[in-house]
Structure formats: structure tokens, C-alpha cells
Sialate O-acetylesterase (Clupea harengus), 516 residues
Amino acid sequence: MWTLWPGYVCFFSLLTAVTVSGDDIRFASYYGDHMVLQKAPEKAVLWGYGPKNVSVVVTLSGLSKRKTYSSTVFDGIWRVTLDPVKAGGPYNVSAVQKGGSDAEVTLTDVLFGDVWLCGGQSNMAFTVSQMYNSSAELDLASRYPDVRIFQVALETSAAELRDLSGIAVPWSVPTADLLGGGDFTQFSAVCWMFGRYLYQTLRYPVGLVESCWGGTPVEAWSSTRVLQKCGITQGAQSSYNFMDSELFITAGPMHNSVLWNAMIHPLLNMTITGAIWYQGESNHNLNCDLYNCTFPSMIDDWRMAFHQGSGGQSALDFPFGFVQLSTWQKGSKLDGFPDIRWHQTADFGYVPNERMKRTFMAVAMDLPDADSTWGSIHPRFKQEVAYRLSLGALAVAYGERGVSHQGPFPSTVRINDTHLMLTYNQNVSATTSKDLFEICCSTEKVQCDPLQHSWMTVPMVPQGSATVAVTLIGCRGEHVASLRYAWRDWPCDFKACPVYSADEVLPAPPFLLHRW
Ligand SMILES: *[C@@H]1O[C@H](CO)[C@@H](O)[C@H](O)[C@H]1NC(C)=O
Ligand SMILES: *[C@@H]1O[C@H](CO)[C@@H](O)[C@H](O)[C@H]1NC(C)=O
Ligand SMILES: *[C@@H]1O[C@H](CO)[C@@H](O)[C@H](O)[C@H]1NC(C)=O
Ligand SMILES: *[C@@H]1O[C@H](CO)[C@@H](O)[C@H](O)[C@H]1NC(C)=O
Ligand SMILES: *[C@@H]1O[C@H](CO)[C@@H](O)[C@H](O)[C@H]1NC(C)=O
Ligand SMILES: *[C@@H]1O[C@H](CO)[C@@H](O)[C@H](O)[C@H]1NC(C)=O
Ligand SMILES: *[C@@H]1O[C@H](CO)[C@@H](O)[C@H](O)[C@H]1NC(C)=O
């Protein structure tokens, strides 16, 4: 049985291994028994260490015809790229050293399937045992032996690492013990549920790689390329407000790039299908205005870097899904959460969009949890969140037709003296709202500046299958300049927002529309 992190962490000293000679060959840290390698049409990459100049013969044996590949150790490293292997298994992968010794290292029970990376902060670290319905979910774990898990240990580094310096959970077949570790340890509820929902549709192996840390800002997960692009030169530590007690309980490293360096960069050679992400809470008061640059740029940068690291195998536009922030403080007047939600979409309100291609989003603002044991910033409704994400993945990553994954978004706005008629891009299930629609008025034809203009709540009444009417009261001779929806930290009660998809599954995301 596993003890909890940090009691159980395998430490490796591979970082210095590149210069040794005379040592026998081995695989890089994150190759192991029970692992999932990326299936066809992509090619999986295998690499490791070895003594100078020896040749290495890698053999894949299992379902298909035995196949061998050879490589030579150069600069302490050997590497092979397998031919595409279709989903399934089990396979064994052995690497044999030719020269010096005949050392052999073997990975057993290897499956080929889709590999997904799961990143972010505490709401991604939140474990299966912490979520609602955890006991039922843990009981089911053993029914999904083809959904395999791996978890990177919490490590920081001032420089980009070649390999992981620690592993929290080596590649494993899921068990209730592994999924139900202590709070915020192992294994991620959103990551696991996402993988198991996908598996129910795909019916072939899924590999889940968790690499996340509670209380961390996007800057820690971003390379210097991203920070430079967004004009961030300062380290984050000094500007962070540690007074937020709920955030504090899960506070992690804040320094620029330290987690990119230690927990993402080492994984770049791995061929992956895509990534999911749940983060943003720690940026509500840290470079919040820049999140519309940092987050989309981090996605671009991860895509470019994984594409290069895998020798072109991970797609340059691999699908990237994320959870739009849920809720934190009921009644809060602070704009942090609404601003981050908006910036998570690069200020479009929906994804995918022109700026954020092949992305998908789970809206979660209607899943508040005032009584969560871990503070309201950590809602326990992770099944819903993961389910919504899995719909996005099926539609965007797998191109399944007819999977609806986006809540309604306004497509046309008509305005007369007394009303604003908002037509959504799909039929809606709408209920009257007294205060979630707000307008902003101006004497000039300009966009509302939230600091100079004030917002007024206006009543909304449903009108027909895709349209709602907002009554314009209060502009008194000025023009209605902007309209926004659900622009607050905690907009609605559980699954009780005013606008949903017609089947009542997907909430309409918040929006901010300017007339000019
Ligand atoms: C390794 O190979 C290089 C190039 O073939 C050669 O110059 C070098 O002497 C070899 N080193 C060893 C330790 O065999
Ligand atoms: C893999 O290796 C194990 C242990 O050596 C062996 O029992 C098994 O039959 C092998 N499986 C395949 C597919 O070669
Ligand atoms: C728990 O699971 C059941 C059955 O899947 C579902 O109906 C229920 O809504 C879930 N409860 C929560 C709180 O997620
Ligand atoms: C990836 O593989 C290359 C060898 O092709 C190696 O030099 C590098 O250290 C590996 N790791 C990373 C993070 O690039
Ligand atoms: C990002 O948001 C800020 C503040 O809301 C805004 O001033 C800026 O123009 C936005 N930048 C981009 C690239 O959308
Ligand atoms: C404005 O539109 C609303 C909704 O269609 C309608 O009820 C109202 O009569 C219109 N008002 C004027 C002044 O045309
Ligand atoms: C939307 O609702 C209208 C009126 O009920 C119906 O005729 C139409 O088929 C619906 N559209 C879709 C795409 O379901």
C-alpha cells in the first residue's frame, strides 16, 4: 500500500547522469512498467542514458510483430522513435546495451493509447477522495485497468531540467488507494474523472500524467519566452497577497518559471495527445490584467515546446482544455474572478476562438460549494467539471460530431428605446433574472471603462427559444454602451444560473459586450 506524499517520493539523481561513463543504460525517469505510450498515428519517443558511444537496441514485443530499433549514445543520451502502434497492449519494451556490458532494461505491461497531461493548481491537485461521490468512484477504480496514472512530484528549479527530479506516483494501474491519497496529494479528481469519461467513449487505453501544485500562479508554469512576451520582468513573490487564508492553505511556489523548469520541461520529449488545466485562482490578484496574455501564450509555448521535444510527434496545435474558474466568495464585489474567467478565453468569452484555436472549456461558475471542507475556493463537484471537460475533448480533440460542449453565447443584439434583445447562438433554457445582466451607460460612443462608468442591474425575461429581452432602465438620455452577464465571483446557486443550453446541461458563460 502507498503512503502519502511526501512520505512516498522516488528521488532520482539523473541530472548528473549525462556525464558518467561506464554506467549501464537506463530509461529516462518517467518510463516505467504499466505506462501508456502514445498510440498511432503519432509515434512514441523513448529515451534514456548510457555510457559514451555504446549502441542500444530497443525491442518492442507484444501483440504486433516484434520490432527492433537502434540508437547510439551521444552526449550521454540515446533516443528512438517507434513506428506508430495502434491502441492496445500489453507490450514489453526492452533496451539492450551493445558494448561495455550487455545490460538490459525492460518495461513490462506497456499499453498504447492517448496520453493526456493534467496541470494547474489546487483544484487540479484536489484528489478523488476529496470530491463528492468519492467512495462510489473509488469503488469503481479497479474496473478501469486501462486508464493508467502517473504523477510528477512537487519540485522547483531555477533552470530548465532535462529529466524529472522526483516522481510522486510511478506509472500504475489504478486502485482505490492510489486514487484516494491524502488531501491534495494523489490522484487528481479532475484528471482521473476526465480520463475515465474519455475511456468510456474511446474504449482504448488512456494515460494520465498529473503535474500540478496548489496555490501557484501561471507565471510559475511559464517559460521565460512567455513572460517576456507579456512584459513580466518581476518575480511574483513580493506582490502576492498572503492574507487570503483559503489560498494560503495550499500556497505553492510563486517564482517565475520554477515549475515549468522542474515539472513540465522534463516531459517535453513525451508524445502526448493533449493537456487539461485548472488554474487561475492564484492570479486573481497577481498580474490579473495580463492573464489574457500569459495564459494563451503559455498554451502556445507548451504546444511549440512539446512539438519540438517529441521530434514533431505531439501536434503543434495539440488540444488544450481548461476549467473556467468556479466560485470563491459569495457576495464579493471584487472583480478578480470575473476578470480571470474572461481572460481565460483571451477576452472572447468562448473557446475555441481565433486567438485560442483547438481549446475547450468547462464552465464551472454554477457549481459553488459554500461548505467545502477545504474552503469554498475548492468546490467538490469535480465529476461535473470533468464531465463538461470530456465533452469538450470529444468535440474538439476527437472531432465527434453532434457533441455539444459549449453553453449558449450571444450571436446578435438588437436594441430599441426600451429593450435590448439578445439572441443566442443556440436554443436556450432561460429563466427570468433580476440582477445578473448589467448595463453601462455613456454620453459618448465609447466602451465602458469599469473605473469611470458604473454598472446597473437590469431585468431579463426569456422571449422565445433562443432570445431573451433585457429592459433598459436607468440610462436617462445616455447611450447603452456595454452589457455584461454573470460578472461576479459567485453569480448563481448550484446549477441555477439564468441561461443554459436547451437540454439544461451547459451553462452560458459570462460575457462582456461593447456596443462600439
Ligand atoms: C566516441 O565516438 C567518437 C566519434 O565517433 C570518437 O571520436 C570518440 O573517440 C569515441 N569515444 C569513446 C570513449 O569511444
Ligand atoms: C513481458 O515480460 C514478462 C516478464 O518477463 C513476461 O511474463 C511477458 O510474457 C512478456 N510479455 C510480452 C507481451 O512479451
Ligand atoms: C453522485 O453520483 C450520482 C450518480 O452518478 C449522481 O446522481 C449525483 O448527482 C452525484 N452527486 C454529486 C454531489 O455529484
Ligand atoms: C529529450 O531528448 C533529447 C535527445 O534527443 C535530450 O537531449 C533531452 O535532454 C531530452 N529531454 C528534454 C527535456 O529535452
Ligand atoms: C487584456 O486585458 C487588459 C485589462 O483588462 C486590457 O487592457 C488589454 O487590452 C487586454 N489585452 C489583450 C491582449 O487582450
Ligand atoms: C422594443 O422591443 C421590445 C421587444 O421586442 C418591444 O416589446 C417594444 O415594444 C419595443 N419598443 C419600441 C419603442 O419599439
Ligand atoms: C429551437 O427551438 C425552435 C422552437 O421551439 C425549434 O423549432 C427548433 O427546431 C429548435 N432548434 C434546435 C436546433 O433544436
Observations:
- Residues 289, 292-293, 347 surround 2-acetamido-2-deoxy-beta-D-glucopyranose (ligand 5) (CB under 6 Å).
- The first helix runs from residue 122 to 125.
